[in-house]
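Annex B. Sample input.
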Amino acid sequence: MIIKDGTGNGYEAKVNENNQLKTLSVTEPYEHYLNHQKHQSYSMIVSVTTAGAACILYLKNEDPLMDISVNPLRINVLANCQLEIATTSTGTPAGGSAIVPTNMYGGASSTANGTFQTGANITGIVKGNVCTKLWLAGSYETSNYDFATSIIIPRNGTMTWHIGEAATFNATVYINYHPFL
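Annex B, continued. Sample output.
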């Protein structure tokens, strides 16, 4: 079989003895593509001081066409604490403040489509399935958390963060909107 180009110039693709197509390619992480080409990467800043165990972040994906991928996280806490990240949480959040995610592509006009809140004690939430639990060591340094796979929030899905004890908590959360393929 001969593979010819689609331009009409008659170029043929080269194949080696292992039936592998010879190519010259440029690869990039899919998240970079979503940011650079689609302008669908955002960051959110969470900065709270809690008096005890509390829900400190609420995210609901309201985009009709895309899932949200959450990864990575940058977190700093001043005292040891535990963080649970839950999906499928239910309820109506109260007591939080709206966050407007910042588009990571400078100058892009697209905006994140969803409800995003942070607060020292968001109420009205029933914690869903805990998908990740982090034991955070108090430090002035920021820790990076890159998960083996992203946390995916489907259309109308939620993600909540629950801190286990009183803490001063700071984080940058990176989200990407993924079109259905």
